Amino acid sequence: MPPPNPLSARLKIQLKLSISRLRHIQQKESALAKQQRRDIAQLLSNEKDESARIRIENIIRQEINVELLEILELYCELLLARIGLLEQRRECDPGLEEPVKSIIYAAGRTDVKELLQVRDILIAKFGKEFARDALENPATSVAPRVHKKLTIEPPSTELVTAYLEEIARTYRIPWSGLPEAERKSFADEGDDDDEGGGGIGVIDTGLQLPSVGGLPEKVPVPPISVAPAAASTENPRPGVTFQGQNIKSATAPTSAKKSDIPDFDELSRRFAALKR
Question: Which domains does the chain have, with CATH numbers?
Fold first, then answer.
């Protein structure tokens, strides 16, 4: 039995640490963005549109960073699942070349020190020429989505408006940028809330309503449910279309907590989705 490769052992440890760290940062950034969305909703409610447009750019940048960290987490999981393939070959396997070069390129542009350790180990294993190709030719050697998310450019006006519309709808604010029907609906809701104190009082008679028996405690779940894709900076207005019309669907059930290392089929599906 050959002795264990110390380089591969270090890589395995650092990949696990990187996955844990990347998940933690994603959760932290998402929580911060949620609070900032509330602040922007308050600005829209106070008709401070220009301030809202400026501050929304920071949220968009944060969400792009979260999406980048999610991709890098997936790449780390893929390398961890194929650690045996990395150990056996002196040269990088063609199927792992894009994830490896993407990590080498992106590690120095993140605040994840564990990912920097992974980058250094990969460079030590595959050589400086391999790393130079990733750093100097990212457009051809790095995953396009990783390269795009690391490109610093201001968000488009359409993307900014789409984010503001989504925040206004979420917090039901009659913002001027929404369609007239939605504005009127949200404004009417606000008027109803303001008039909440003028109704007819309820007299407590001390009587109790009879209980209704025989009803099921839980409503059966329909056998088929369709949920739109999660919103992202690349698709800020996800939806489900049926016969040319957009339909609303129930919120998708919360997925179970993922394990540290997903199975190979799950990784393959997620990896293919990132390439679309």
Answer: 6-151 (1.20.1260.60)
